[in-house]
Design a protein that fits this description.
269 residues; three-stranded antiparallel sheet; 9 helices; eight-stranded parallel beta barrel; alpha/beta; 11 strands; TIM Barrel
């Protein structure tokens, strides 16, 4: 397993502290980070400079993620350009967030999402790019829980799972039970940790379905059993990578949290 970090989380810290991006990437590389994980929007914006920085530091790209709203635009082929960007970046996989339920016909929305993802997976196969979905932490995402994600993994042959350790908390589902359910289809792992209380002043809460709040924290430091999930992955001879994700963490503190998590992961993978 190689260790990646969300590029956008690093950007948040760089902007908040005024540090050099290349210096931060080099420091994280020394701590044990092997790869980056990036959004299509960030790649479009930063790719020329980022290619240079990655080459200088010795990093590769783990994967790319992007939104594609099939319920609103059922006939869109925007996924083609997004998948092509993933190929260009050297990504090993492409995560699609394929739209949300509207206040209208939810059955129609589900059908549009399934059909759109089916077309994205088919296109991904033609260019050698695996297409994945995750348990997205949004209340209007019909794949925000075990049953919802399972629906699409069953409905779309060839669709893989990007397992996010911190998102099943939306409905307070057992993350280890979720891991066991999806283990055979996991192709990459987003390591997001949660805690009941704010660690830093400007951490942003996530409101769950029952209106309780939870806070993101450095992966390995919170309440999610990430250590146990890593052990189960190793027992299954998992061949993918792990990605530290720290969205909603205090921007002034996030670089320190990322480095702590990378070092913590390095001892376990």
């Amino acid at each position: 397993m190689k260790i990646a970090v969300f590029y956008e989380n690093i950007c948040d810290g760089v902007r908040a502290t005024g540090q050099s991006m290349e210096a931060v990437l080099a420091r994280l590389k020394r701590a044990g980070m092997d790869m980056l994980y990036i959004s299509a929007d960030s790649w479009r914006r930063d790719r020329q400079e980022l290619k240079r920085q990655m080459k200088n530091v010795g990093l590769t790209m783990e994967g790319m993620h992007a939104f594609c709203d099939f319920p609103k635009n059922p006939d869109t082929e925007a996924y083609r350009e997004l998948i092509d960007l993933a190929v260009e970046s050297g990504s090993k996989n492409f995560l699609i967030v394929p739209g949300f339920l509207s206040t209208g016909n939810s059955v129609k929305d589900l059908d549009a999402i399934a059909e759109g993802v089916h077309r994205a997976v088919a296109y991904g196969k033609t260019v050698g790019m695996p297409v994945l979905m995750e348990d997205f932490d949004g209340l209007t995402a019909p794949y925000n829980c075990m049953a919802g994600l399972q629906y699409f993994l069953d409905a779309v042959p060839g669709l893989g799972c990007a397992f996010d350790t911190g998102n099943f908390i939306i409905f307070h589902e057992d993350v280890l039970a979720a891991f066991d359910l999806f283990a055979d289809k996991i192709q990459t792992l987003h390591l997001k940790d949660r805690t009941a209380s704010r660690r830093h002043e400007h951490d942003t809460p996530l409101t769950c379905a029952d209106e309780t709040q939870t806070f993101a924290c450095a992966p390995g430091s919170g309440d999610v059993p990430i250590d146990e999930i890593l052990k189960r992955l190793k027992a299954r001879q998992y061949s993918g990578n792990v990605i530290a994700e720290l969205y909603s963490c205090d921007p002034k503190e996030v670089l320190g949290d990322i480095e702590w998590s990378v070092r913590w992961l390095k001892e376990r993978v």
